[in-house]
Amino acid sequence: MPKIQVGDVNLNYDVAGKGEPLLMIMGLGASSAQWDPELVTDLARTLRVITFDNRGTGQSDKPDAPYSIEMFADDAAGVLDKLDIPRAHIFGVSMGGMIAQEFALRHPKRTATVTLGCTTAGGTHSVPPPPESLKILTAPREGVAPEDVIRRGWPLGHTPKYIAEHRDVLEAAIPRLLKYPTPPYAFQRQLEATYTLKTFDRLPQIKAPTLVVTGAEDVLIPAKNSEIIASQIPGAKLHIIPGVGHAFMSDAREEFLKVFVPFVKSHPIVA
């Protein structure tokens, strides 16, 4: 994967497929390796899929300094600048969905459509995760084997049923996810950045066609948050996928694609 300089950091990115550009923004503590390879392959059949490592993850730079959601959004815009892409479809999940909200607000002319996956607008208008989920999310990482950190986090992304039936799939993904692990300090910097989220009052300003999607069983960012976001954005389409959690885009890949691809195709960048 090549690197490009965006502001004060070098960001790692990849491009797959041809067609209208789709910028995919990953969530807290995760590099672009977290994207389901089959999902990327499916999307790349009709779109030019751009994935990248947020600062602090993967092969991108990991400065030990304060991060913010606005900073991440401008990083994402910088990736498009370097690739000479004036306008793109934007898809973010979890913290990536927070970044996508801010991207649509800060860079409206560059946002063809925005898809907000399993995310929240934060603040007093959000529904927090249950205490047991928060305990897992904020548990110390120092001194814990990286593969055990991943296994510890499975219940945040997947339902107990999915874990029981697909443990082999989850285990097989660990080497890919650990090729370029996120250092504990960088995870903490990203976690602190999520506390800077302040989009709720500005969501009605989003004019781009918007799809809000999540899993009904999400125990990290409860589905009610998606309902709140969709109610704030004029014309937003809400889709809640039953029986899956935070990792809906992989655990219910086919249903997600049936909703997402027609949505994007119905709003072409060049009419």
Structure commentary:
- The protein contains 11 helices and 8 strands.
- The chain is of the alpha/beta class.
- It has an 8-stranded mixed β-sheet, sandwiched between helices.
- Strand 7, helix 9 and strand 8 form a beta-alpha-beta unit.
- The model has no long low-confidence stretch (mean pLDDT 96).
Briefly summarize what is shown:
This protein has 271 residues and is of the alpha/beta class.
Q: Which features characterize this protein?
A:
18% strand; eight-stranded mixed sheet; alpha/beta; 271 residues; Rossmann fold; 11 helices
CATH topology: Rossmann fold
Helix content range of the residues, please? 25-40%
**Parts with pLDDT < 50 across at least 5 consecutive residues:** none
Q: Figure out the total of helices.
A: 11
| End-to-end distance | 32 Å
Per CATH, the class reads: Alpha Beta
**What is the CA-atom radius of gyration, in angstroms?**
17 Å
Largest sheet: 8 strands, mixed
Q: How does the helix and strand content classify structurally?
A: alpha/beta
Task: Please tell me the total number of domains.
Answer: 1
Shape: globular
Beta-strand level of the residues, as a percent range? 15-25%
Quickly give the CATH architecture. 3-Layer(aba) Sandwich
